[in-house]
């Protein structure tokens, strides 16, 4: 049985017919072609599937699409557009994306979209987080490559850039 829903993803409205048990992760990746949201474990243990729902991180592999109808969903594809400053970087990167590149916080890249979205939610509510605040916010996001040191440095760097630019809710 299909259910008609309206999803607002990255500021764009989408009207879809979804199965009552269809996961948000699958709708984003397969129907809307937003493949920055990753399938990791499928059990809610790794957080690779993190998206922002009304500004808060959620696990899209554990969320039914019908349960978020009409609410605001942001994927990694939706945070760019803030006018990046890193030399050689594509225009429009969010300060978090810039900082992840500058600090070497991107290795295999699989966890990166979820890390950035989780960090964005933190910085939107706390523009000057401590190292402990950052580690606490990212505690559920698993990374096998970086050891988290460069990720924490990147979040601190992005927080500084965002404060200097005067906006912690960009993108």
How many separate domains make up the residues?
A: 2
Secondary-structure content class = alpha+beta
Under CATH, the topology of the largest domain is which? Ubiquitin-like (UB roll)
The main sheet orders its strands as 2-1-5-3-4
- Give the CATH level 1 class of the largest domain: Alpha Beta
Write out the CATH superfamily name of the largest domain: Beta-grasp domain
Measured distance between first and last alpha carbons: 36 Å
CATH architecture of the largest domain: Roll
Percent helix range: 25-40%
Rg to the nearest angstrom? 16 Å
Order of helices and strands: EEHEEEHHHH
Main β-sheet description: 5 strands, mixed
Low-confidence runs? 82-87
Helical stretch tally: 5
Proportion of residues in extended strands: 15-25%
Give average pLDDT, whole number.
91
Count of beta strands? 5
Overall shape = globular
């Amino acid at each position: 049985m299909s259910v008609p829903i309206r999803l607002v993803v990255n500021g764009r409205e989408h009207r879809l017919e979804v199965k009552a048990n269809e996961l948000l992760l699958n709708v984003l990746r397969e129907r809307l072609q937003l493949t920055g949201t990753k399938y990791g474990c499928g059990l809610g243990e790794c957080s690779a599937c993190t998206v922002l729902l009304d500004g808060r991180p959620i696990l899209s592999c554990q969320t039914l699409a019908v349960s978020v109808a009409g609410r605001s969903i942001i994927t990694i594809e939706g945070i760019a557009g803030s006018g990046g400053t890193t030399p050689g970087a594509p225009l429009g990167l969010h300060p978090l994306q810039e900082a992840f590149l500058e600090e070497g916080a991107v290795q295999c890249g699989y966890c990166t979209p979820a890390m950035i979205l989780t960090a964005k939610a933190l910085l939107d509510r706390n523009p000057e987080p401590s190292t402990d605040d950052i580690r606490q916010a990212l505690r559920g996001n698993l990374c096998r490559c970086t050891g988290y040191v460069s990720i924490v440095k990147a979040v601190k760097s992005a927080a500084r850039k965002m404060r200097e630019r005067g906006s912690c809710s960009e993108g």
